[in-house]
UniProtKB/TrEMBL annotation:
<keyword id="KW-0732">Signal</keyword>
<protein>
    <recommendedName>
        <fullName>glycerophosphodiester phosphodiesterase</fullName>
        <ecNumber>3.1.4.46</ecNumber>
    </recommendedName>
</protein>
<keyword id="KW-0378">Hydrolase</keyword>
<keyword id="KW-0319">Glycerol metabolism</keyword>
<dbReference type="GO" id="GO:0006629">
    <property type="term" value="P:lipid metabolic process"/>
</dbReference>
<keyword id="KW-1133">Transmembrane helix</keyword>
<feature type="domain" description="GP-PDE">
    <location>
        <begin position="346"/>
        <end position="646"/>
    </location>
</feature>
<feature type="transmembrane region" description="Helical">
    <location>
        <begin position="730"/>
        <end position="752"/>
    </location>
</feature>
<dbReference type="Pfam" id="PF03009">
    <property type="entry name" value="GDPD"/>
</dbReference>
<feature type="domain" description="GP-PDE">
    <location>
        <begin position="34"/>
        <end position="330"/>
    </location>
</feature>
<dbReference type="GO" id="GO:0006071">
    <property type="term" value="P:glycerol metabolic process"/>
</dbReference>
<feature type="region of interest" description="Disordered">
    <location>
        <begin position="698"/>
        <end position="724"/>
    </location>
</feature>
<dbReference type="GO" id="GO:0008889">
    <property type="term" value="F:glycerophosphodiester phosphodiesterase activity"/>
</dbReference>
<dbReference type="InterPro" id="IPR017946">
    <property type="entry name" value="PLC-like_Pdiesterase_TIM-brl"/>
</dbReference>
<keyword id="KW-0812">Transmembrane</keyword>
<keyword id="KW-0472">Membrane</keyword>
<feature type="compositionally biased region" description="Low complexity">
    <location>
        <begin position="715"/>
        <end position="724"/>
    </location>
</feature>
């Protein structure tokens, strides 16, 4: 237990603030800030109701919810279910001791608390993580007893007692009501149950200001006392008023979700109806690592805000597996929490625009990026067979378009670019590419079934480099990033991407002005050297491989070719194969010591992309790269998450006027407290960057362009409509411009040496 408490002192990062800091009125029943309740403790990070899970959530400002289960000898423990087979290691200790009981009308086979003494449960059985997407590294800590006397460890002032199975215990000759009556409850405690009979019985107890709450279950489940479905009971909240101070409802009672996992257009009136009756409303079911409705773009903060700061109502409390994130949402991101203009913060650089929401590098992705207040929008320049430059993250059209359904016969192997076969842009004409549909890619779709905005999967229009540059200038963005990869291979195909890009930038006068700032990024130092004659351009070396360090010779060589460097996350913070950060590397410190800017690439919101140290919260990762590391910019697929953080006063860890902020993690702190033994085989070492990896050979001369092969099938006619919002010309003018660019490319094939 002491080990766990010491860990808590290291872990809790900003949650000891008093909530009365928010002086503006909330749309809660009492006008005060909502209450955050940790479901079975900090159960999103640690196994439910263990020493570690319960200790963190007991900090000032939050309630700690303990679901009480009775034992064979009349004592109790905190556990979410009467069957503890999923939340403890009881199956390992007693592999042949399953029993079957009737629980609320259903036969359930498992391991039940009433078959064990308190000593067996607390001293011999330990907690395990019940959700497979969470780390099992903290399995093995003791589960928590629930003691009735003042000596009880968890009889604290901020306790929320939940009684989910009173009728089950009654049917098995145990009386939950009598047990709870012996608990020294005060007005600071809360008591909830999904059983009306139990609440009626306990409501007669004379405890001043003790708040009782009716906890709704899924709408189609049957309430044990009345035998009515919970959905039916919700239609008559007035009947609950004489018995309880409020209700607890699953999220869907307030914001229903349709069959496609999108929020319906409007919330229900449940919160306002309850408030009119004087009933508080607490909402359950929050977890950062849930598959959230697509409207939230995998940002848990956005979901919390939709329940507490939507302009129509605010629920009175949030019951969540991740109390720190819910508290951050309330204290930092509600509209009246001193949100401000962005100050000196790292640049927010997009990856294919807002490519977490729309197909990368489309008109919609770029417009969304600006709506989300990105600083720099990017264009990874690809070339069509006939020399048209356009924006797309990869030259392989089979991953970012529906090309596989139309041009499968054009698939080829290009080992210089990627291991797998692909359908490459340089093998199709621009006219053929325009017949394709964009395709929003979901990098975690196959791994865990996390899809990105599927209703808009094929929305948006492709954007040429010329359209991108015109768009950026018309919108007065802070900067643009031009990404140039595979330049030597394109030269072998007769495509002069360097001349095409330099000409397009000059045509739009980007070489004459410092605003918007132009960042030219490449993994090839010889490519960067081609842009050194324009002082206003900033050259960025993209180191795509994970590295452990940058020796002095390699760093000094980078300085000869670049003004900055982009590093992977794992080149900045070491992370082991089990998903924990292990150490802060010195790569950023070394490079910044030579006055090189350093960007981290790339950030995403999905919880599976985050180390366990970040609480499945992308904001904590952003705070860590901002303050623990001090990067100069983020390359991200979800710019809104970073922008919201930067415009919150909680992003300023040095603001002494505030007693609440979002502090970063300390890399390696969490892994030291895992209960699991170290792996038999150590993680493979990450190599240092070598001088040879920095120095690239001179670029080859551009080969004579080959005549494009005759298409083997007739492609559909391209759309005549221009990309929305990108000042596109008519189709005929665009075709003429494309031909002019191709002709210019042919005339300027003088080579790169």
């Amino acid at each position: 237990m002491m080990r766990g408490l010491l860990f808590v002192l290291l872990l809790i990062h900003a949650s000891s603030a008093a909530k009365d800091e928010n002086v503006a009125p909330w749309l809660t029943l009492n006008g005060k800030a909502p209450t955050v309740v940790g479901r079975e403790g900090f159960s999103g990070q640690f196994p439910e109701d263990t020493d570690l899970a319960l200790a963190p959530s007991s900090y000032d400002g939050n309630l700690m919810l303990c679901s009480v289960q009775l034992t064979m000898d009349g004592e109790a423990i905190c556990q979410p279910n009467v069957d503890i087979s999923k939340s403890t290691n009881v199956q390992e200790i007693h592999p042949n001791k399953t029993k079957t009981y009737n629980v609320n009308g259903k036969n359930v086979t498992g391991y039940f608390t009433i078959d064990y003494t308190i000593v067996e449960l607390v001293e011999k059985i330990t907690g395990v993580q019940s959700t497979w997407t969470r780390s099992d590294g903290f399995d093995g800590y003791n589960i928590a007893p629930f003691k009735r006397g003042n000596e009880g460890e968890f009889m604290v002032s901020n306790l929320w007692i939940n009684v989910p199975y009173a009728q089950f215990y009654s049917e098995n000759k145990m009386n939950m009501e009598d047990y709870i009556r012996q608990v020294p409850l005060t007005e600071n405690h809360c008591l909830s149950s999904p059983e009306i009979g139990f609440l009626k019985a306990i409501s007669g107890r004379k405890v001043k200001n003790l708040k009782l709450y009716f906890a709704f279950q899924d709408k189609d489940e049957v309430e044990p006392t009345t035998q009515k479905k919970y959905g039916s009971i919700a239609s008559d909240l007035a009947a609950l008023k004489p018995m309880v101070a409020g209700i607890v409802v699953p999220k869907e009672y307030i914001w229903p979700v349709d069959d496609s996992n999108y929020l319906v257009a409007k919330p229900t009136t449940l919160v306002t109806d309850a408030h009119k009756l004087g009933l508080e409303v607490y909402v359950s079911g929050f977890a950062n690592d849930n598959v959230l409705p697509y409207n939230y773009s995998y940002d848990p903060t956005a979901e919390y805000l939709n329940f507490i700061s939507n302009g129509q109502f605010s629920v009175d409390g949030l019951i969540t597996d991740f109390p720190p994130t819910a508290t951050d949402a309330m204290m930092c991101f509600a509209p009246f929490n001193d949100n401000r203009t962005k100050g000196e913060q790292p640049l927010i650089i997009t990856r294919g625009g807002a490519s977490g929401i729309y197909a990368d590098s489309t008109d919609l992705a770029y417009q969304q990026a600006l709506d989300d207040e990105a600083d720099v929008i990017d264009c990874s320049v690809q070339m069509s067979q006939d020399g048209v430059a356009f924006c797309m993250l990869t030259p392989d059209l089979s991953t970012s378009t529906n090309a596989a359904a139309i041009f499968m016969d054009r698939s080829s192997d290009v080992k210089e670019i990627q291991i797998d076969s692909g359908i490459f842009s340089f093998d199709l004409t621009w006219e053929e590419i325009q017949t394709l549909q964009p395709q929003l890619t979901s990098p975690f779709e196959k791994f865990i079934g996390l899809y990105r905005n599927p209703a808009f999967k094929n929305k948006g229009k492709f954007v040429t480099l010329a359209q991108f540059l015109e768009f950026a200038r018309s919108k007065a963005v802070t900067g643009i990033m031009i990404n140039l990869d595979n330049v030597p291979y394109l030269a072998s195909k007769g495509l002069d991407i360097i001349t095409t890009v330099t000409t397009a930038l000059a045509k739009n006068q980007y070489d004459k002005k410092a605003s918007p700032q132009v960042l030219v990024q490449s993994d090839d130092t010889s490519v960067l050297d081609k842009f050194k004659n324009v002082p206003s351009y900033k050259r960025i070396l993209n180191i795509k491989e994970d590295i452990s360090s940058v020796p002095k010779a390699a760093a000094e060589e980078i300085k000869k070719h670049a003004d900055g460097v982009t590093l992977t996350r794992y080149s900045i913070i070491a992370t082991d194969l089990l998903g924990f950060t292990t150490a802060k590397r010195k790569t950023v410190e070394t490079l910044q010591g030579l006055n090189l800017t350093v960007y981290v690439s790339s950030l995403a919101n999905e919880y599976v992309s985050l180390a366990f140290d970040y609480y499945a919260d992308p904001v904590i990762e952003i705070a860590t790269y901002t303050h623990t590391i001090g990067v100069n910019g983020f390359i991200t697929e979800f710019p809104k998450t970073a922008s919201r953080y930067q415009r919150s006063a909680c992003s300023d860890v040095n603001d002494l006027k505030r007693n609440y902020t979002i502090l970063p993690i300390e890399p390696g702190a969490l892994v030291n407290f895992t209960s699991r033994p170290p792996p038999k085989a150590a993680d493979p070492p990450t190599p240092a960057l070598t001088l040879q990896e920095v120095v690239d050979p001179p670029l080859p001369k551009v080969a004579k362009p080959q005549s494009p092969p005759k298409p083997t099938q007739e492609a559909p006619a391209p759309s005549s409509s221009a990309p929305a919002g990108l000042h596109s010309t008519a189709a005929a003018v665009a075709a003429a411009a494309a031909a002019a660019v191709a002709l210019l490319s042919l005339l300027l094939t003088a080579g790169y040496n």
